[in-house]
Fold these 2 entries.
Entry 1:
Amino acid sequence: MGSLLDVVDLQTQFVTRGGVVRAVDGVSWDVAEGETVALVGESGCGKSVSALSIMRLVAAPAGRVVGGRILFKGRDLLQLDEESMRRVRGSEIAMIFQEPMTSLNPVLTIGRQITEGLETHLGMAPTAARARAAELLSMVGIPDPARRLPQYPHQFSGGMRQRMMIAMALACEPALVLADEPTTALDVTIQAQILELMKSLSRRLGVAMLMITHNLGIVARYADRVNVMYAGKIIERGTAREIYATPRHPYTLGLLRSVPRLDEPRRARLDPIEGQPPDLTRLPGGCAFAPRCAFRVERCAVETPPLRPIGAPGHVTACWEAERLTAVREPVGGRR
Amino acid sequence: MAIARVPVPEAVEAAPPGAVARWLAATREFCRARTLGAVGAAVIVVMFAVALLAPVLAAYDPEAVDFGAMLARPSLAHWLGTDSFGRDVLSRLIFGSRTALMVGFGASVLGATLGAILGVGSAYFGGRVDLYLQRVMDVFLSFPLIVLALALVAILGNSIPNLIMAIMVPMIPRSALVIRSSALAIREMPFVDAARAAGFGHARIVLRHMLPNVMAPYLIMLTAFLGQAILAEASLSFLGLGVQEPTAAWGLMLRGAAVEFAETAPWMAIFPGLAISLSVFAFNLFGDSLRDALDPRLRTQ
């Protein structure tokens, strides 16, 4: 499978009063055609900024992509002029936002919000666009689309709105969908429905997906490959199976441990990761996770660990002490 | 307190009332809750009807001079008397409503709309565009409305289109100021970013996505402007810089002979004065009630 999106050494910074925030700091990853890739990390680690950088929608003038390349179908999106970039947005790369409540325009009808993209990107006639919009709504499982089209977003429930966002994203048959925490704002039961829908549609239509989330449960079930981000850098990458079975970075391990599990006896408390994420304006030298890391050695505070292959092919980690992790990991999984 | 949840039948939500029914319901609610505003609205409706039906309603040609009936007191033949040229005051008032509404509506709709577009655009683009645009607006805002309008009429010359233009220009920054502050909040809504991510151009986002979201402040500005614009037109005409004789206009009826004969023929000045006051009052009443009805912070309950 060829690479659809190739992000190479991406650097996005924000200039603030407190200094320059290196939100995305030299990150490289790729998405193959039809593949679902996850970008995982806690709030503020640069996941959303990565997606916005691809869309070239980082809020200027404070935010700026300062380096790297974003190769989409062989073209560097960072080199495109604004007009060509606009044609990429929505029609070749679509985005699904976190808040289905506020990501839809409250004063435009559902039908209008879907047909607008069809009309502007595909040049469809209004009647054809309407028919296609109805088709899309039924595709995402919204019953009785003809009656739904003239309604407004407030007449839809949260889950229905997110379905509608998916319909909007898929309207122009993009090659890649960036989903920024698509289910965070939804009820758990609805989350599963939405994720199943996204999975089945991406399979059926051959759409690649970048799933941005902090929920490792989602990752396990719906992603092919996983990139774990911390403080603007990717610290571990591998197949979802690998990451789950043998995490090779203390941070990934910490994330997995902080997920409550139903299949384990109830413990008095979870194992949260101690401390706070670092201030991105004043990153310490060496590994950014070192201050919170239980496996820290002297070297960690001095030298920044590069990503290096470990274990199965494709599995990389940015940890000096990754080998030690395999040994101590056992009690975690075996604590049943 | 136990809350009994009555299951709402799906059909209730399923069949939203038609647009007409919703407007009717809203209108009924407005009349009930804001009686004064409804009275204002009624006066406005009457004014419109009068303006539309002017040729039918007026007993005399408003420009016809009758030297046999100069300065006639109100009588059955001339309900509100005649002026120094023997023209029927009532007929001139009736036709004057056309001038007032045309200039009033023309200026306030154009002013509020252009201001809204500038305000939303200013909020959307932000940064330097916003900064420079707002400073230009500040310059215009530093002139009182009537002074700026006067200066513009003096430059443009006085015809009705020029009058509309002159009154419209000072309204633009006032509208832009208010609409911008609403649009700043809209700018931060994720759907604006979503529209960007969907590949829509700036003009489309400003005009089709953001503008409909500032409808409430827009309508409030518009109704507030209507009264001001009618007053401005009357003032300019009174000062001799607006509508020219012999066209019927309320402000015009107050000047010249009306001043000269104020004591012997007071009807010449009283009735146009009342017409101006009543219409401005009606627009202000309606505008205030509309603002209260549309402003969620002031909404009762």
Entry 2:
Amino acid sequence: MNKLNFLKPNKENLNTYLYIGSFLFFIAVLDVFLGSFFQINITSFLPNFVGFILPLILGVVGLHLIRIEFSGIPKLDLLNKNINTNTFNAVLTLLIIFVVIKSIPPLMSWFIIDANIAGDTKEACTGSGACWTYIKIWLRRFIYGMYPNELQWRINISFFLLIALAFVGLIPSKKLKKFLTLYYVIIYPIIAFILIYYLISGGAFGLEWVETGAWGGLSLTFIVSFFCLIFCFPVGMFLALGRRSALPTVRYISVGFIEFWRGVPLITVLFMSSVMFPMFLPEDFFMDKLVRVIIAISLFEAAYVAEVIRGGLQALPRGQYDAAKSLGMGYWKMHIFVILPQALKLVIPGIANTFLALVKDTPLIFVVGLLEIVGMLNLAKTNPKWLGFAMEGYVFAAIIFWIICYAMSKYSYNLELKYKTER
Amino acid sequence: MNVKVKKIVPQLITLVVVILIFGFFTYNAQINMDNRGIEFGYGFLKQESSFDVQFSLIEYDGSHSYARAYLVGLLNTLLVAFLGIIISTIIGVVVGIARLSPNYLIERSAAFYVEFFRNIPLLLQIFFWYFAALRALPLPQDSEAMFGVFYLTIKGFFMPRFIWENLDVLFYSIIAVIISIILIRNYAKKLQENEGKQLPVFSISIGLFIVLPLLTFLFAGVSLSFELPVLHQLSTTSFVYKGGLGIPPELIALTLALALYTATFIAECVRAGIQGISKGQKEAAASIGLTPNQVLKLVIMPQALRIIIPPTTNQYLNLTKNSSLAAAIAYPDLVLVFAGTALMQTGRAIEIVSITMFTYLSISLSISLLMNWYNKKIAIKEK
């Protein structure tokens, strides 16, 4: 036991241990770094396996030697506390550091160093890395689908107007504040519908008609998510109220409806909308594919929204209901002026999460033949002139979706924090 | 009187509206089907399906009925869901615990994993694994063996197949082992409550689990041999592995994507569950002299599980429903085989879509009933 004691780092020989330990750790990291970035193997004189495992052993010994409790050096203490509490943690720390060092060069070379972006044919991609030329050439298709190039300004303008109109609520005016809910729930959706119908679809005011089959790409993702959000919210609200209703018939119908949609996968709902729903309509009645899809996704998401809102309704204390009733309010008055404003405020983060799931579900509309960005990627990938660039396409779409979804989830998290403190 | 009317009228209106909508749909469906000369009914299930399925757990070919095709699809769906649930639980629990690690680097890596995989649509991930990542694997003739017997190629993963003899005896012995382990556990619990003695239940169980099946090999004629995958040449440039157990790339891609995606949500459930236990519990347990392992096993986990299980069940349900995305990469699951191929052939949209939906609905409802029962069992019993 005594023999081992000199290996146990202590405060007396602090500097010695510190120097030896950090030297060993430095050598270990340097070995991996050189091997990964410059393909220099400084341990080539050793057998293969030993050379492979050596950095880990050196690193663990090094970290062991600098693991000195209460060393009096704040930075060392912080380091030990965070990444070097025991041998197991030290091994994991080293493994993570090595994996990061090992994975940087190949990623860098694929994304930037060996990648190509110049030119406009497949032949321009000579490097071994990514072929961003492919993305560059197909970018319009990925964003606008098959929408005619010269008409794409219509999509841009309508999106720009919609975003601008969404900020009306920020105008600080007390007179208008009363109408804000009305604006967002009824007027704004109508404006949005008119914009999309007349500007993107065309067919009136001398604008050329573009059928919905030509819509696609990222703009279609936005259109579908936007309309589904607008429609699923009121439906979900009524379902939530229905599920909490005192009237048995209303309650059972709501429960049945909600559980049905929550129990089936979205892909079967879309199948239903495309092959089964037309059977349920009168023969001469034609409904556009996009409209059917939007209705289907809205009903599907409404069931999830309903459950979120129900959570908010249940979280309100009973006193709120009793107080409203004692003021002589009826069912609708009570809900509109007392219950819903409070309940909805509680569930904003939950709604945001549902909406996030909705955005991530939109690529599924490929099953009915509508091609948003992932669908366009699959189409472009099979183009004989551009075979073999599946990876670039998926990475591109993944980056776009990641940015959108990450921003939304961070936003909903912030909302959650904000409303948590207010109550 | 007034109150009664107020209660009955809205119900009546709702009921009438719902019945009217259903009636309208049924009426139209009737007319549409009459026009197309289709008669509503499930008789077609007995007809010969005459299409093949790439991957099937049970014996199936074109001469079997549509009902059998349905069963093939259902089993494939359940297989993916089962594999996905197991793998995602393992990853999810590890990552969830890692997110609470005092080690800064481990915590950040786990957080990176969660944020990365959670915010990319599942369909995109499935496409990525199937069309981009797995396509980079070597062709069968170029693949090198892992551990001598496993081959990972562009056409799937090939491994030795187990060939059992007298498998039923082994099954019986395993059932006997499980029953005796339960009995021993109950006995050990009683012993501890009455006399304060602790039996090494875990080592006894492991011992039983090894010894009894081993005995069947020695005395009951159970034997195991392997059939290795062998490379066959079809033509000058085309090679395949025959024999052994082949796992198609669709299944690998789908399971991988589902597991990695769902694991992020399970990790968050696990993290929330462990964080939900107050620090006092841990300190109290430590102060009565329990070891760190015992603290985790006897105090933290039983309480954390109560918080973890309901949302995790939801994730299992989501995984099962998401497995229907298999249709996108042509893995023959319920949606592809039944709601895809069978529907195309028979044109019976209403029957087939309703059966498919009903199947998913019953899977969902039965898992959630099972989990509700379990949840009730482990819920805090207040005296």
